[in-house]
Every structure is written in C-alpha cells, then in structure tokens.
Amino acid sequence: MQKIRKGDLVVVTTGKDKGKKGSILRVLEAKVLVEGINRVKKHQRPNPVKGQTGGIVDKEMPLHVSNVMLVNPATGKGDRVGFKFLEAQGGNTEPRKVRFFKSNGEVVDV
What is the model's pTM? Predict the structure, then answer.
C-alpha cells in the first residue's frame, strides 16, 4: 500500500512550484505526476502515423514522492501520512489497513 495514490490532493514542498496544490494524475515507481505542476516545454517531432503535429508542447513532468505531501482537508496544509489497522467489520475477519494523518489521527481512506 502506498502513502500517496492516484486522485489524492497534494502540495509541493520543494522546488520551483513550492506551495502549489494539485491532484495526482499518475503514480510511477518513486515519482508522481501532479496536475498543473512541474510543467515544461517539450519540442515534439511530428508523427504522421499517430496523427501528431510537431511543435512545442506543454507537459507535466514527474516529481519525486518525497517532494509532495498529502493535503489534510481539516487544516488545508500538507501533512504526514501513516498506516494503522482498523477492526474488521461485517462478514470480514481480517483487520483493514488504512492511511491516517499524523497530526490529528483522522483516517484518509473511508
């Protein structure tokens, strides 16, 4: 289980986009792609087979996971995340592993 997942709202902690917030588009090995963050201009060659035109395009580049923090909705700031087990409910016998914010203990996953 990962501390940061696709769709999470995160804040950038270092670099040129420090303090900006965005949602996770994709999670790679140890990097994440954040919507609207770390945008670069890429010179793209045309590819007639795929129907792509050439030119300069804006695209998001990956950031390392250590450079982003999950946003706590209670405070609106970045917060550290940990894991804990909740008791089993319903017909399930195994405890559920969930993420929680370290500052106030609030569970991220529902």
Answer: 0.83
Q: Are 36 and 21 spatial neighbours (Cβ–Cβ below 8 Å)?
A: no
The mean pLDDT of 83-91, rounded to a whole number, is 84
Domain count, the chain: 1
Domain for residue 26, yes or no? yes
CA 69, CA 58: separation in Å to the nearest integer?
Answer: 24
* Residue carrying the six token digits 């970045």: 78
Size (the chain), residues: 110
- Is 4 within the bounds of a domain? no
User: Going by DSSP bridges, is the β-strand pair 81-86/63-64 parallel, antiparallel, or unpaired?
Assistant: unpaired
Radius of gyration of the chain (CA): 18
Structural domain range at position 59: 9-101
* Phi, then psi, of 106 in degrees rounded to 5: -70, 140
